[in-house]
Design brief:
By secondary structure, this protein is an alpha/beta fold. The chain has helices at residues 17-20, 46-60, 72-81, 104-122, 126-130, 133-140, 152-163, 168-178, 209-215, 231-234, 236-247, and strands spanning 2-3, 28-29, 66-70, 88-92, 191-196, 220-224. It has a 6-stranded parallel beta sheet with strand order 2-1-3-4-5-6, with helices on both faces.
């Protein structure tokens, strides 16, 4: 099961799915409150998202799946692992790993709020934006370092998807109030954490501090030199290999 990041959709996995589907039955879902996903019933929280994904696991009949997640999706995958609902987790730049007392995540959340506003303003012109190399670089500047191989149609879908994330502001407000918590002692399955050294949203290694030092120091850690926040888009073949090398018998 593949879990995308904040304001994204299942389409973020499009470039790695052909390889994953050779070895696994794959469900790449869109999180509640995101474009194409169901609404969030009740308060918008990370726990509500984890509950919704757990219901999807049950409805799909996966029981205890391999979980792959990017950013917010990586954090949710680890939350589900702490509930015993993961066979393995491959987390690509999971959110929530700032050190205690590091308030830089507040600046990130403020930046994301402004970014969502700019994306909503530009979304009606998505096709025109991605029609040029400069526009495609603009659309991917906070997601990847490599972008020439990403289809323009996929980038346009991502822009429109981010603009249609109805839960964006509420999720940001929740993170501002509550921060991030992980019952790491209950994560008993194998975990691989993958981080790009050129991540512009969750900078390496500062944004991984609690994962490395407190929560999951014994995870299998992989650094991707020169890669950005979304390895599944940035280096899809290498990302697929990292996933399959951890999930396949």
């Amino acid at each position: 099961m593949c879990l995308h990041g904040f304001a994204d959709t299942w389409r973020t996995w499009e470039l790695v799915l052909p390889w994953l589907e050779r070895r696994h039955d794959v469900l790449a879902l869109t999180l509640p409150g995101h474009a194409g996903g169901p609404p969030i019933a009740g308060e918008v929280t990370d726990t509500a998202l984890a509950d919704a994904v757990e219901r999807e696991i049950d409805e799909a009949g996966f029981e205890i799946p391999h979980l792959v997640g990017n950013s917010l999706g990586g954090y949710l995958a680890l939350r589900l692992a702490s509930r015993g609902r993961a066979r393995t987790v491959v987390a690509l730049a999971p959110a929530g790993g700032w050190a205690r007392g590091d308030s830089s995540y507040v600046n990130l959340l403020r930046f994301q709020r402004g970014l969502i506003e700019r994306v909503r303003a530009g979304a009606p012109h998505a096709e025109a934006i991605v029609a040029t190399r400069e526009g495609r670089r603009l659309a991917t500047q906070y997601l990847t370092t490599n972008f020439e191989h990403i289809p323009a149609e996929l980038l346009a879908l991502q822009l429109r998807g981010a603009a249609q994330c109805t839960a964006a502001e509420a999720l940001i407000e929740h993170a501002m109030r509550s921060g991030w918590n992980l019952d790491a002692e209950r994560v008993s399955c194998p975990v691989r954490i993958v981080w790009g050294t050129d991540d512009r949203l969750l900078p390496w290694p500062a944004a991984a501090s609690r994962f490395r030092g407190q929560w999951l120091p014994h995870a299998d850690w992989v650094e991707l030199e020169g890669v950005g926040h979304c390895p599944q888009l940035d280096v899809p073949l290498e990302t697929a290999q990292l996933i399959l090398g951890f999930t396949s018998p």
